[in-house]
Amino acid sequence: PETHFGFQNVSEAERREKIYQVFENVAEKYDVMNDSMSLGIHRVWKDILVHKMNPSPGTLLVDVAGGTGDIAFRFLNYVRSVRERQLQQKLRHHQNLSWQEISKSYQEEKSNPLGDSQVVVCDINKEMLKAGKKRAQHLGYSEGLSWVLGNAEELPFDDDKFDVYTIAFGIRNVTRIDLALQEAYRVLKPGGRFLCLEFSHVSNPLLSRLYDLYSFQVIPVLGEVIAGDWKSYQYLVESIRRFPPQEPAMRLFETRQCKPSMSRTFQLVAVCCSARP
Ligand code: SAM
């Protein structure tokens, strides 16, 4: 099939610009398209990522290439539910607590349901962030959430700032993955964690044929029908294809700071590493 503009022989700057255009074009329909292209499965993968992260109240997360906030919203829900569970456990043992202590716990929980956790969504694309903010407003997320325009290769954050760094379906769109990893470890606190979700190759030959058919024949058509944009969805399919198979993909993440552990399911690689000790 024809090679899409993102992969023609172009300079890094041009490629970055083309990728910017793709996400600028898809931003408004991004969430609807994600559901229809993956039949909703991306939701399960993102849930798994946040369960793997298992953040405790007080965690500071940066979600890079965070787009319209899917990981951030899940993170906030998760932390809130941990806080609620902690409070319930405390109350279950209320025989040992005075009424003052019980009411203090309630008030603390009410005034700070996230236990000081925060998530920063960082993305290079203004339109994706705009769509994310609109969605956050619509879904009622505001506490503990902020949106920052920034490039994964040159993050606008101080050193040693975050407990966790996530990047979901973003790394394959970054022009210089090596720089993005360097930046990830710079902004992570010592002992912080790096978690990445990305598509890779389907190893089962039969499934791979089916996936080829689906991705080349169906996804651009869905893109055209739902979002009026064939080319951008062709780029998304091709960018997945150009991403290395699972084992070499895992080696991409190996650095001095990170000995990755990888989970693989079907077409997905999930990488999890601890940053500097
Ligand atoms: N993480 C979100 C999700 O899982 O739904 C969005 C993933 S979307 C496929 C890829 C995102 O990567 C887009 O929002 C795009 O703007 C962003 N992106 C691409 N290159 C980037 C870069 N160099 N730095 C930060 N974000 C980037």
Automatic annotation (TrEMBL):
Annotated membrane topology: Peripheral membrane protein
Keyword S-adenosyl-L-methionine carried by entry: yes
One GO term of the biological process aspect: ubiquinone biosynthetic process
Chain sites annotated for binding S-adenosyl-L-methionine: 68, 123, 151-152
Pathway assigned to this chain's UniProt record: Cofactor biosynthesis; ubiquinone biosynthesis
Cell location: Mitochondrion inner membrane
Any one GO molecular-function label of the UniProt entry: 2-methoxy-6-polyprenyl-1,4-benzoquinol methyltransferase activity
Catalytic activity: a 2-methoxy-6-(all-trans-polyprenyl)benzene-1,4-diol + S-adenosyl-L-methionine = a 5-methoxy-2-methyl-3-(all-trans-polyprenyl)benzene-1,4-diol + S-adenosyl-L-homocysteine + H(+)
Key words, A-Z: Membrane, Methyltransferase, Mitochondrion, Mitochondrion inner membrane, S-adenosyl-L-methionine, Transferase, Ubiquinone biosynthesis
Cellular component terms (Gene Ontology): extrinsic component of mitochondrial inner membrane; mitochondrial matrix; ubiquinone biosynthesis complex
Subunit structure: Component of a multi-subunit COQ enzyme complex, composed of at least COQ3, COQ4, COQ5, COQ6, COQ7 and COQ9. Interacts with PYURF; the interaction is direct, stabilizes COQ5 protein and associates PYURF with COQ enzyme complex.
Function field: Methyltransferase required for the conversion of 2-decaprenyl-6-methoxy-1,4-benzoquinol (DDMQH2) to 2-decaprenyl-3-methyl-6-methoxy-1,4-benzoquinol (DMQH2). Methyltransferase required for the conversion of 2-polyprenyl-6-methoxy-1,4-benzoquinol (DDMQH2) to 2-polyprenyl-3-methyl-6-methoxy-1,4-benzoquinol (DMQH2).
Membership in a protein family: Belongs to the class I-like SAM-binding methyltransferase superfamily. MenG/UbiE family.
Protein name, entry field: 2-methoxy-6-polyprenyl-1,4-benzoquinol methylase, mitochondrial
The species this protein was found in: Gallus gallus (Chicken)
Portion of the full-length sequence here: 33 to 309 of 336
